[in-house]
Every structure is written in C-alpha cells, then in structure tokens.
Model the fold of this input.
Amino acid sequence: MFERLYVMLMKEFLELKRDRWAMFRLIVPLVIQMLVFGYAATFTVHHVPTAILDLDQSQASRSLISHFVATSRFDIVDVAKTQSAITNDIDQDRAVIAIVIHAGFSRDMENGRSAPLQVIVDGTNSNTALIALGYISQIAAQFSLEQSSRAFSPRVGSAPPEIGISLQTRPWFNEGLNDRWFFIPGVIGTLTLMQVVSLTAFAIVREREVGTLEQIMVSPIRPIEFILGKTVPFFLIGLGDIAVVTIFGMLWFRIPFVGSPWVMLLGASLFLLAALGMGLLLSTFSRTQQQAFALNFFFVNPFFILSGFAFPIAAMPRLLQWFTVINPLRYFLVVIRAVFLKGVGLAVLWPDLAAMALLALVMLTISVLRFRKSLD
Amino acid sequence: MNVRRLFALAFKETLQVWRDPRSLAIALLMPLMQMALLGYGVSLDIKHVPLCIYDQENSQESHAVVEHFVSSSWFSISRTLDRQADLRNAIDRGECSAAIVIPVDFSRALATTGTASIQAIFDATDVNTTNIALGYAQGTIAQANAQIAAQWAAAHGVRPSLVGRVDLEPSTWFNETLDSRNFIIPGVVAVILALVGAQLTSLTISREWERGTMEQLISTPVTALEVMLGKLIPYFVIGLVDAGFCLAGAVFWFGVPFRGNVGTLFVTTVLFLIVVLGIGYLISVRIRSQLGASQIALLVTLLPTTLLSGYTFPIDQMPAPIRALSLVVYPRYYVTILRAIFLKGSSLADLWTPLLGLTAYALIIIWLAARAFRKRLD
Done:
C-alpha cells in the first residue's frame, strides 16, 4: 500500500513541479491579498466629512464646534450659512454628517434648559452612521459637563456636575481596539479555505475530464490510496500557506501571538482536513471542471460571509446560525483569534477543535464512499 | 461581422449551456441561494450583547444599577458571577462578550462623595461589537446617572444643576432605521452578480482548448469579434435573469426601500454585466487551462469584490494606496450606484462619477476582449 501511495504522491508533486506557475500562483497572491485586505478590512471611523451650520454664533456654540474641530474623527468640510446649503451637502455626498446649532442654543444652556443640537446623518452606511453618532453624543456629553462644571460653585447650592457613576472601560485582549487584530486572523483563515477547497475540488475532476481517471482506475490503486495521494500534497501546501501568512501577519502588521503554536498547529491541521474533505466532496458532485468551479463559488462565498469574519454569528437569524454549524471556517476563526489574541488553550478550545475533527471525518468518509461508488 | 455566423455561434453556445442542465441550474439557482443566505447573514446590528454581572457588593444601590442593565434591550444577562476567577473564565469561553464589575465599596463611595466607579470589561477580540457594546453601556450608565443625580440633589436639598445639557436630536436620512441590511443588501447583489458573471464566462474558451474543439473553431471563418459576441450573448441573457432575481429579492423579500427608477437600474445593470462577463471572457482567452482560469477568476473576484468594493468596509476609511487600488475593483462603482438608486433615488445625472468609471471600464474591457482571441494554435 505504501509503495503505491508513494508513487501516487510522486506523480502529484511532479505535476505541481512541472507547472512553473503553480508555486507562484500558490504563494504570491496569498501574500499580496493578505497585505491588501489587512489594510482594507476596517470598521474604524475617522475623518467623517462633516458640515456645520451655526445659527447661534455665540461663545458656547463656537466652543462646541471647536470640540468637533479638535478630534480627528470629524473633518469639517463646510461651514454653511443656510439650512438649504447643509441639506445640499448631504444630498450630494459632500458630507455624511451635518450639525445644526439653532439660535438660542447658548440661552437655553445658561437657563438650565436642555439645548437642542440637531444632527443629520446620512444613514446609507448604517455602521459608520451608528459609530459617528456615538462619537457625537460623547462630545455633547463632554461639552455639557464642561459647561456645568464652569458654572458650578458650592455657594450657589447646585449639585456638582460629576454626580453619578463613572464607567471605566477595559477592553481585554485588544486594549487599543485595533480592528486589524480582529480581521487579519480572519483573512488568514479565509484565504487558506479558498485556496485549499478549490485546489482539491479541481484535482479529481480534472483527471476525470482529461480522461486520465480511467488509467488510474485500471491500475491496482485503491480509492483510499488515490484520495490520500491527491490530498496529502494539498494538506502540506495548506500548512505552508498558513505558516507563511501567519508569520507575515505577525511581522508586518505586528499582531501579537500570545497563544501556543502547538494549539495553532492542531487547529490548522484539523481545519485543513475539513477543507480537504469539503473540496473532495464537491469534486464527487461534479462531472466537469466548470461544475466544480461553480460549486466552489457556490459554497465558498457563503462559508466566508457566514463565518463570523466580519458579521457576528450572534446577529444572524437562528436558522442561519444552525447552518454555520457545518462551516469549518467558523470554528477555525474562533481558534485562530483565540490563539493570536487570548492565548487560551485546549481547555477552552476543545469544542471548536472537536467540531472541525468531526466535520473532517464526516466529509472525508462520505467522499471516499461516493468516490468508490463512482469507480464501480 | 457576419450576423449569420454570429447567430450560429451564439446558438451553439446556448445549446452547450442547455445540454448541461447541472451548470444551468447552478447558474440560475446559485444567485437565489446566495441572496437567501447572505441577505440574512450580513447584519451588523448587534442586539442583546451577552453580559456577565459580577456584583461584589450586593447592596440595594448596586442592584439598582444592575436593574438598568437587565431591563435594557441592548444586553441580555448570560451569567451572574461570584468570583474573580469566573470572570476570566466566562470571557475566555465566550459566555459573555462584556462584563460589569461593581466594586465592594460602591454604595459607600456613592453616598459619601456622590461618585463611584464601576468597571466594564469587554472581549475586544471583535472590535466592532466592542465599540457598539461600549456605546450601549455608556448609554445605560447615563440613564442610571440621571436618576442618581436627582436622588442626590433631593437628599442634599440642592437644585440638580444650574446649567442645561446639550440634547442630541439626531435625524437619519436615506436609511432612517439605520438597519444595516438596507445598506449591505444592495452590495450583496453587486457581489453575487460579479461572482456569477465571472463564473459563467471564465471557462468558455479554455474549455474549447481542453476538449480539443479549438482546432474546429479556428478552422471556421469566424472572426475574433464574432467569437466574443457569440460566447457572451447567451451568458448575458442568463446574467440579466440572475440580476432580475437578485434585485427583485432585495426589494420584495428583504424589503430594502427602492426609491429610484427602474430605467436607471436597468441601464446601470447592463453596463455592469458587460464588464463582469467581459472580464470572465478575457481571463478565459488568456489562460488556457480551466484550473488556472478558475483560480485567477476566483482571485480577482471573490475577495476583492467582498473587501474592496465598499460593500461592508467603507472605502474612504482605507489608506490612500488601497483606496487607489479600489478604483480597479469594478464592483465598487456598481455598489455605489445600487445603493444610491435604492436608498437615495438617484438619477443617472446624480450618478455621473461612478457611471463614468463603469463606462470607461466597459469600453476598455470590450476593446481588450474583442482583440484578445487569436486564431492560432500555438
């Protein structure tokens, strides 16, 4: 058996070696994509184009505006004179946020009434809008506090402004709330999944379509040996991929890697087995490369979107949450993020590792069975 | 160009599609399935953040604060902790993504000085969720504080405050409910069309090479232009049907507000399909093996379309070189156009910048594609 397997492996590696472009196609795009997507994937909100209309023109209103000028979160793109000018700014995409300080703003503040501050948000990108609104309300709260602490003196007999609870926020694992730390481990998992599944799915279908599958079938090789021979090279390529992009992510993007490399290796191996199983399973359902390609597209995109890469699984409807149970990427993202940032070990990660192992086992078994049937 | 030859080629290609029902079914069903999966999956609306409470004091005052979190619809209390060690454990295991820790001297500090601090701990591995949960926590505390300030003022016989507060009156335009689906689903349509389109055409020529039918095709009197059009027309029809499915799904199933005009939508969609199918065809002509063609197609579509088109990650927040790179990612124009047509009701005139980009793209692709096919066997 080992001799046959060895021959089969040699054939696969030879084929890979003969294809001068193969190595280039396998490594270079991976690193480039890592670089580009590492920079592109961010939900941070900075320099939001903002238009301001100050109808009060008082010291208080100018002081409020200076708060917006001072932060890099907002860029004042227009100091408007009329309400219609500000409406135009939003309509024509010059500004995403418009702030209107109405006449009587400072009078309301001084008289202890609530002073309305009108904020118009272009909600087209709801995430940016939500986060920007959060910043604005922080600025408004900060401004109110400053104004009231200036006015407070014990003699007047009013309550000191800072009465109440102060919230001390402690973001664990990522103190600086740097979202690159969140996305880059995700990019590593996604890139590997895409590459391994498509390579595997095509490998067998190509033999079938080019007609060399018959030659293999008449040879004494058994289905399990054939499948091993096909998948072992891709497993090694996948491990190499993960190692290259992980090291690249650590060195270039300076992402901390606080966990154990062994847990990472175990997680990566189980993930790759599941990805190989998926590719093989897809290949048993396709007669032509075009079908394999279409199926690949069909599954890889939802697996990527529904993995928790960017969209939290908790925010999905219950039915879709169930669907993600069969998604190996979902588990690997938990593992890779935990290893990178949290440094937790098997005690915490075993359910995700076990799930990947189970998925790999089921998919590999089904594909071996289906493959054997198609040979008979 | 000979119309009869063109027709014959288009007919042959249609037959080929027709005789491979599996591929045809995939081409027509795939966008629908993807719409269903992605339309529901792409939501950033975080409600009910799982929260752990570690109340070290267990006093009436601390319970009052906890009550604010319990009654808030932003959080759902997943666990009440008794020990510091459990806290780390609960966050490690992902039982909660945020935790509130109330210290032992909470009520004493509040009674004597009027101020006290509590800790909010977040699992910041998911930064976006943390940012949003942080805002929720601050909002909840602000509510609690209003109550505490009023009580304190009443107990000490002073007026609450002499100075007014700034009261935010936000009004949101175009996507009034700030529902993330309304902004992401038009993007999903663009991404699906880009993927399906590339998948449809990127193997058409390399298949002829691998099956050995290229010699026969070359020996006929067809011209390069006829090959291009003949190959693209059947897929263009499929692409239009797919686009119809997806756009109808966005409006009628997911209820994304449609404020624009159908004519604008049609013109821009046709332009986009030309670009998408043309690129698939170009890849197919350039790369002879189906494996290579499919890998390149996957490479230039899936991730760039998802990450650089602005459909989830705002392009204006990216560093300048990446922003420049995104100009090449053709779905970005269509994403911008679709969003504007759906949510803002923009007309062709309003959309001239992305339209210019898309038109330029279409012209370049057609020009390249028309010249790409060579009747040579080497």
